[in-house]
Amino acid sequence: TPPNHKMSASHYEKKANKEFNSxxxxxxxxxxxxxxxxxxxxxxxxxxxxxxxLRMNYHAGxxxxxxxxxxxxxxxxDSASYAEQAAKAYSxxxxxxxxxxxxxxALERYLGDLSEYSKGLKDATNAYRNASNLFxxxxxxxRAAKMETQAxxxxxxxxxxxxxxxxxxxxxxxxxKENGDEDEEIQKKSxxxxxxxxxxxxxxxxxxxxxxADSSTKKxxxxxxxxxxxxxxxxRVKSERTTSxxxxxxxxxxxxxxxxxxEQSVDHYKRASDYYESNSNYPNANTALKRAADMAMDGEQYxxxxxxxxxxxxxxxxxxxxxxxxxxxxxxxxxxxxILLCKLMLMDVSSFETDLEMIKSYMEMYEQRTxxxxxxxxxxxIITMCSAFEKRDLKRFLSGVALFEKVGKLDDDTTRHLLRxxxxxxxxxxxxxxPILR
Length: 438
What we know:
By secondary structure, the protein is mainly α. About 80% of the residues lie in helices and about 0% in strands. The chain is built from 20 helices and no strands. The radius of gyration is 31 Å and the shape is flat.
């Protein structure tokens, strides 16, 4: 990065901060000593653009956010010229903060202290929220909804990246545990293959002379390809142990951040739905809610996911002039299927009989509304799974899933949910068969 560009951005930011802080002072506010917001605004904008070009995303986000704050203050006197600009600047600030999260290696770089990494997520949340609020204040509900959707998608992408990183770290932690007991053996074997292991244990009259040792080493190296493989293994183990060690605390912290990202994404989708509904755009309102439910299920928040999906399903029957009744009605089997999957995943192993009765009552209610769910592909699978729980029959469950998959391949989300339900069924079977757990 050219140092003169960094210095230029830093120079603009320092001057802007000086005037910005002056604008916040009591004397300036009381006596109106010049328009400091207007003076600091172009400097923050210049600094933000330079930081953005240099891909110093967090610094760019801070500068854009302060520029947006200046515009917001100026909009109180001249709303027509500054209000929309302020919303756009907050949007740019949020994008920069999210780009900071997406920087290559950023997540693993902050593993030791994820609070620093999460700071960017919190700043992005505030910036997105300020942008959508400003658009809503101007009466532009569609722009506000799109801003909330954009925020939800951004948090969704970060969450997916975190999940992939957690999978890599889990594999790395497992590798560390497996290699922990083998390091000494590898070191010993490697030193022996290098001609160093047995020399110190030889008697003085058994030690070879220099020429014999040299020829023996060369011959050994040429004859044994295992020598090079052991060296490579030793290098990998050393790298694993010294430069990329992972602890369970790292994974726990990451899991907590995944949960936070999931909650943020769900919240933004729900706010987007509210804005769409206020604008009488009911199809998009329902779509945003369904995406919120999908995110909740991905984050293993099944109770919340079921609640959101029930709201979408009920809306088709309670909203007479929505304009989306036929679309939601066409998708009703998919909605009911996801709701009942959530109910199955929420079952308590110790009282699953009661939970099964509740699920059956839900199915009866849905059948009264649609008259076709139980005969549908999704309904037949739910019925088969309930029967498998009642009979404690894993084969029945597997045959039902196989029949379901003949019609169409399972997507990743459904596969993951069905695997979770299978584990529930196995736990129920083991509890019945084990007299201690019964």
